[in-house]
Write a structure and sequence with these properties.
With 144 residues, this protein is α+β, with helices and mostly antiparallel strands. The chain is 43% helix and 11% strand. It is built from 5 helices and 4 strands; from the N terminus they run βαβαββααα. It has a 4-stranded mixed beta sheet, with helices on one face. α1 (12-21) links the parallel β1 and β2 (26-29). α1 runs parallel beside α3 (65-75). The radius of gyration is 18 Å and the shape is globular. It starts with a strand and ends in an 8-residue tail after the last helix.
């Protein structure tokens, strides 16, 4: 049975969504990041980077949510999530990597500074896109 290590609301949600869309049975193994479970030896043996999600399918261990999704979509290609033509797959890859590199990072930065960091440690400015006021705030200072 497929095992998924992770906990919502992390990037494990991407994998959970696809596993459910594919109708696959899997075992969800919660990992508490805040308690340091991603730094325990057992977890680091699966992913030396100490990050979730981690998918285990038989002897195969896959990390990184986009890689896991591509693996599952390819393995269960009858579901139609992977285009057949290489040109169409290239377009799909473009959007996957655009999301992971261009859209997700600024949103995650905003989330950290709005909801996760203590007020004294968070950036006092609202970050919309890097390159504007965001860079003046790095490293963050409370002099605003």
């Amino acid at each position: 049975m497929i095992k998924l290590y992770g906990t919502p609301p992390t990037r494990a949600l991407r994998v959970i969504w696809l596993l459910n869309e594919l109708g696959l049975e899997y075992q969800m193994l919660p990992v508490d990041i805040l308690k340091g479970e991603t730094r325990e030896a057992g977890f680091l043996a699966l992913n030396p980077a100490g990050k979730v999600p981690v998918l285990v399918d038989g002897d195969l261990v896959i990390t990184e949510s986009s890689a896991i999704q591509l693996y599952l979509a390819d393995k269960y290609s009858q579901a139609g999530f992977i285009p057949e033509a290489v040109e169409d797959r290239a377009k799909m890859y473009r959007w996957i990597f655009f999301l992971a590199t261009e859209i997700e990072q600024p949103l995650w930065r905003i989330t950290r500074h709005t909801f996760l960091y203590p007020k004294r440690s968070s950036c006092p400015r609202t970050w919309i896109w890097p390159g504007r006021s965001a860079w003046r705030c790095w490293p963050c200072s409370n002099s605003t």
